[in-house]
Structures are given as C-alpha cells and as structure tokens.
Design brief:
By secondary structure, the chain is of the alpha/beta class. It has ten helices and 15 strands. The two termini are 15 Å apart.
C-alpha cells in the first residue's frame, strides 16, 4: 500500500515521504481499515513537529482520524470485516495512507444514511463543537454566540451548530473571502477582523451587552479581546491555540464580570466519560443525516496532494474542512 511516513520530527511538508509499504498487521484489539477519507487537522501538523500534547515517536504515519471500511481484525477486536467505521487511528499507522490501524474500542459504526466522507468531515470539528457548546458551554436558544476563526474547520462547525440551536451568531474571520463563507454558513453578523475593529463591531451588534458564549480556537491576542466581550455570566470556551500563543487571564476581571473561562478537551472524554461522547454522536448523526448540518468541505485531496493541504492548513488560507481521499 501507499503511505506517507515520517522518519524524523519536523514540518510535515519537509519530512513526510510517500512510500510503498506492507499493509500493517492489526494487533490485539485492533483492526485494519481501508481509508475512504481522512480529515486534515492542525493537531496532525503539531504531532509531526513533536509539539502536540500526545507525542508519537518516529517512524509513523500521521492522520489522527479516519473513516473507512474494516479489512482485517486482530484478536479481541469486536469489529467485523466490512464494518463502516469512524474514529482515531492507532499504533503509528494513521490516515495519511491507503490503509490505517484503529482500535476497535475507539471506533463508531457509521449509520447507513451517513456517507463516510461526511462522517470524516464532521468527526473532530462537530464533536468538538458539540462538547464545547452543549456540554461545556450550556448553550441556550436565543443566546448570542461569537465564533472566532469562523471560516475554518472548527469555527465553521460552531457557526452551523449555534444557528441550528436557535442562537444569534456573530462570526469573525480574516479577509473578505472568509467573511463571505461565514455569510453562506448563516451567521447573523460577520466581521472581518483584519480590516475592522472586532471589539467595536461586536459591542455595536450586541447593543453594548457583549456575548453569552465565545468560541475561541485561536488564543493569543484574540483571547484578551474575547474576554472583554463577554456579557454578564458569559462563558469563554477555550478550544485551542491556533495563533501559537497560549494566553493568560487576570482572575479579577473574571470575578468582576462574573464570567467563566471553560476548557474544552473533547478527546479527554474517551474512556473517562464515554456516555458523553455517545450522546454527542447520537445527536450529530441525526443532524447530519437530516441535512440540518452539512459539513463545509473546501477541498478533497488525492494522496499525492497531501502537502498542499497541510501547507494551506498551516498558513490558514483554507476554509472549512480539507479531506484526504486515498481510496475515493
């Protein structure tokens, strides 16, 4: 099979090599899947660089999440050959390849009324959005939700999910093309924070009240702006640090404005509170199958085009989801 392999840590577009390798053999509890789609995640880049919180030592194939069809199963794996599955990869054989290894206990069976590419596109971003907005943020219909980096993967999902739940959505993105994507997603107010003052525009849109929920996958300087934009009893959802800078918050400001800073770690629920993820995916399957949520996929890449997608993801020129399709 063909697979992108990494023998040393570094920027993936510099160190990844497309190789012809033997199919990996599933170990105990594992299965091998034919990869239909693998969603490109910023965390994949960090893992290649050796800076992600879950470190994998080379050699390995990146691609944390796949949707595909089970080809072979190891001892003790409860999956069956032919199962359509979605979930995280294992043992250093990720989704940037024609085949990947997964742990059966980590997989979800994809319903027949959801396509595998759609399942891949929704997996991490909608799962993160659901955990952030519903589980951690206690989002309520009628609330005002500000989404930062709203044209990106996790941001576009949050915009759609907040709209479906009956909230007023303010979408902030960088550049006119990305702002137009936010409009197409259904955001009520769209702000170009490259050319407009984010604080002033949000306060204008909320009549000076601020936002009930702020979805922040960026961190850095935007975190400081975001906390100032919180309404009384608002919740600031810490989703990630795409800016590369991890911010700090003055506790006295949170006290005076009576707001909450809430961490969001979707993967942390796995094997700790699996019932939360069960509820999450039950809801998401229904919303995607009904068409109420439609993952924004800006590009489907063939195996040889992977580095183009990773570079676009790294420099934030992409919108929505980038999917690798090793076996379209």
């Amino acid at each position: 099979m063909k697979a992108w392999r990494l023998d040393e840590l570094g920027d993936p577009w510099d160190v990844l090599k497309l190789q012809e390798v033997d199919s990996p053999l599933p170990g105990d509890g594992e299965a091998r899947v034919e990869v239909t789609a693998c969603d490109l995640n910023f965390a994949d880049i960090l893992q290649c660089q050796g800076t992600y919180q879950v470190r994998v030592e080379p050699p390995f194939t990146p691609g944390m999440s796949v949707a595909g069809t089970v080809q072979a199963v190891g001892n003790g794996c409860d999956l069956k050959i032919g199962d359509r599955v979605l979930g995280m990869t294992s043992s250093g054989w990720g989704g940037y390849a024609e085949e990947a290894l997964v742990r059966g206990s980590d997989m979800r069976i994809v319903p027949d009324n959801v396509s595998l590419p759609a399942a891949s596109a929704m997996n991490v971003i909608y799962g993160t959005g659901w955990v952030a907005l519903h589980r951690r943020g206690n989002m309520q219909p009628g609330e005002t939700v500000l989404v930062l980096a709203a044209a990106g993967g996790v941001g576009s999902a949050a915009v759609q999910m907040a709209k479906v739940h009956g909230c007023k959505v303010i979408a902030a993105a960088g550049g006119p093309e990305k702002v137009e994507v936010c409009r197409e997603l259904g955001a009520d107010v769209c702000i170009d924070y490259k050319s407009e003052d984010l604080y002033e525009k949000v306060m204008e849109a909320t009549d000076g009240k601020g936002c009930d929920l702020i979805y922040d996958p960026v961190g850095g300087e935007y975190f400081d702006i975001a906390r100032r934009l919180l309404a009384w009893e608002g919740r600031l959802l810490v989703v990630g640090f795409a800016s590369g800078t991890i911010p700090c918050a003055p506790a006295n400001h949170a006290l005076v404005k009576n707001y909450s800073i809430v961490g969001v770690h979707m993967g942390g629920y796995r094997h700790r509170m699996d019932d939360v993820l069960d509820t999450c995916y039950d809801d998401l399957w229904k919303l995607v199958a009904s068409g109420r949520l439609e993952p924004l996929v800006s590009s489907e890449l063939q195996l040889g085009e992977l580095n183009d997608g990773l570079i676009a993801l790294s420099n934030r020129s992409s919108t929505g989801r980038l999917l690798l399709r090793p076996n379209p």
